[in-house]
Amino acid sequence: MEGRDLPVGRLPDAPERLVERIREGDEAAFAALYDRYARQVFSLALGILRELEAAEDVTQEVFLALWRGAARFDPRRGTPEAWILTLAHHKSVDALRRRKIRRAEPLSDSAVGPEDPMEEALRALQSAQVRAALEALPPTQREILALAYYGGLTQRDIARRLALPLGTVKTRMRDGLLRLRALLREAAL
Amino acid sequence: MNYSEEHLRELLAAYALGALEPEEREQVEAYLARSAEARRELADLMEAAAALGAAFPQISPPLPLRDRLLAQIRAERRQAGRTRERAGLWPAAFAVAASLAIILGGLAYTWRLRVVALEDRLARQEQVVALLTNPAARAATLQGTAPGRVRLIYDPLGRQGALLVSDLQDPGAGFVYQLWLIADGQADSAGVFRPVPGRPLILPLIADFARYQMVAVTVERGPSGVQRSANPPVLTARL
Q: Per-residue DSSP letters for A35-68?
């Protein structure tokens, strides 16, 4: 054991380095990555799924996928943080889609009808900055962004739901996200 | 079907939002693999998409999840190790690392915590609200050399408690705070935590608070703390 360090201790701080070490099977790096991002991942999943248990399951799935798939991280496509949050969003939306299928079964005991996860998610938004940016978007673009990101709907689902041509949905989604990016950048200045 | 570059580029926003059908997603991924310009544009769009995800209230996952995940990856590593060993491709240096991992895994397994973090998936807020409105609940303010507001709220009759942390300074890169409950001179770890700048941190706990006389916080090497601390506490309070 001479000269060897225990897996704990001396953690490098850069997330990119953590991902590299996870690729080599370093558990301490994995724990450090968890400590750094678990809160963001869990909060995103909880925001979309509005259910603690489901959010915990998604968080677990995300970190296991990170452990198994660290080799697939491509720094040219963005930061580890963006990668992790994208993965968290994918898994949350997958869980939401699975749940919708289950909820389609007739077991409605609610007087107010089925909850709309997207509406719930929008209500729960905490960041005033993001809220303000969303509110500054034309309502037609805002609705489409929210249906996609918070509601987990694909462009095709949205076109069907809003009875719009697919091309219109595609244009509004793209314009909406570009506009949102510009608004967030303005707000950050 | 192969899409035109122009069409693929238009799909990048939907890709960042996760709103593509599977076959479109594959096409976009192939496009990203061959175009640096597309990757740059995507990184930009993902930033805006990520802002949508970061806008939710920030809540920490239940503490036991961390241990569960670490146990799971440890098990997967051992599995992978055995497979490689059988294949005869395993240098001796890795064997040392693997036996070390097995020893550490064993330690974690035998490390019986009498204090376990919230297991029953109750909302943290609900537990804390219930505690705060419980007339039997008591509060202990921890004091010592680390500046910050750290209080333990607990029900001496029940098993519910929560550590409330605000304005506590960062323990430093690679270090964590470790919480201990002390009974008759013996300290039981109640887990590790790191303060979140600018936000209060709430750690729900389940423990037999009646048997402990003291609560203490030490600074330990991250990420998982120690089994027995040799460090003097930076914060303590009598229960």
A: HHHHHHHHHHHHHHH--HHHHHHHHHHHHHHHHH
